[in-house]
Write a structure and sequence with these properties.
Family: Belongs to the LpxL/LpxM/LpxP family.
Membrane topology: Single-pass membrane protein
Largest sheet: 7 strands, mixed
Strand order of the largest sheet: 1-9-8-2-5-3-4
Protein name: Lipid A biosynthesis acyltransferase
Number of helices: 11
Number of strands: 9
Pathway: Bacterial outer membrane biogenesis; lipopolysaccharide biosynthesis; Glycolipid biosynthesis; KDO(2)-lipid A biosynthesis; KDO(2)-lipid A from CMP-3-deoxy-D-manno-octulosonate and lipid IV(A): step 3/4
Order of helices and strands: HHHHHEHEHEHEHEEEHEEH
Structural class: alpha/beta
Strand content: 5-15%
Function: Catalyzes the transfer of an acyl chain from an acyl-[acyl-carrier-protein] (ACP) to a Kdo(2)-lipid IV(A) to form a Kdo(2)-(acyl)-lipid IV(A).
């Protein structure tokens, strides 16, 4: 089922005061012009390196593992660019949650919309394969403005934040589905619904296999997309939002890929290998905008040492 979004007085408990206060401050800040938010966000992100040193080390380690051909100067520049993007992402979340449809529509363009409409005409549901980019929240809102779509997500442990984020994410008539509810997702796909799913994180050992990801030969990779596609018969397409910095035209591009051919196959290992290659392609559209702060290579085959210390 879709996530419920009921308010209760329990959410006003003092333990949630900082949550409500922080979201209110974010609401006020995102009333500023977009150029101001971009300026402030980049500087806030760079400043954060003094307070989230553990995350900075994870970003750097992931980049070193994925791009061993880059020298330390190039890696350090990517780290700083990634932190800048992280700061902008905070305000993009506020934009996604609080901006009007009219204000948002002035910011983006859509590339490949015919790929979605062609797949949608089959009335077999659509699996939209995404990545955890910094603009994730904004991408979800923009997708909802362009076509009807639901999304898989992990419920927040903070009940107040769960209420706030679910209510905000459903502004564009989207439904949020717990990522563990595979049966419901298949049912909705068979009804012709579109569902967004990002399979690019470390889900541990359950429901995964080891596949190459960039230069890391064995990376825990979800079988979820292949299984959903096989059970539902839904076509699969990639979709990515990119922030167009230092470019003319719109500030964001929503890029929808062509329907995957011969997917899924009869070989789940080949499918997960292929999925990681697709994810790599989407990341490389703007590698500095990807969520490198996630411990993507945390799960290792038995006997292998951890990449993180």
């Amino acid at each position: 089922m879709y996530a419920k979004n009921f308010f209760s007085l329990h959410l006003l408990h003092p333990k949630y005061f900082l949550t409500w206060f922080g979201v209110f401050i974010l609401f006020l800040l995102v009333q500023l012009p977009y150029s101001w938010l971009l300026f402030l966000g980049k500087r806030l992100g760079l400043l954060s390196r003094f307070f989230v040193k553990r995350r900075v080390s994870i970003i750097k380690r992931n980049l070193e593992l994925c791009f061993p051909d880059k020298n330390q100067h190039e890696i350090n520049k990517l780290v700083m660019d990634n932190l800048s993007s992280l700061g902008v992402a905070l305000f993009e979340t506020g934009m996604a949650w609080f901006w009007s449809d009219r204000r948002l529509k002035n910011l983006f363009e859509v590339q490949g919309i015919s790929n979605f409409t062609d797949a949608n005409e089959k009335n077999a549901g659509i699996l939209l394969i995404g990545i955890h980019s910094m603009s994730l929240e904004l991408g979800g809102r923009i997708m909802g403005l362009c076509f009807p779509v639901n999304a898989m997500y992990r419920p927040h442990n903070n009940k107040a934040m769960e209420y706030i984020q679910t209510k905000a994410r459903c502004r564009s008539d989207k439904g949020m589905i717990d990522r563990r509810n595979l049966k419901f997702m298949v049912m909705e796909l068979k009804k012709g619904k579109a569902i967004w799913f990002a399979p690019d994180q470390d889900f541990g050992l359950k429901g995964t296999t080891f596949s190459p990801f960039f230069c890391v030969e064995k990376t825990s990779t979800s079988k979820g997309v292949a299984i959903l596609a096989k059970l539902s018969g839904a076509p699969s397409l990639t979709v990515t939002l990119v922030r167009n910095e230092n470019k003319t035209g719109k500030q964001y591009s929503l890029i929808i890929g062509k329907e995957l051919t011969d997917y899924p196959s009869e070989n789940i290992q080949n499918d997960t290998d292929r999925m990681n290659k697709l994810i790599e392609t989407e990341i490389m559209r703007a590698p500095e905008q990807y969520l490198w702060a996630h411990r993507r290579f945390k799960t290792r085959p038995s006997g292998e040492a951890s990449f993180y210390h």
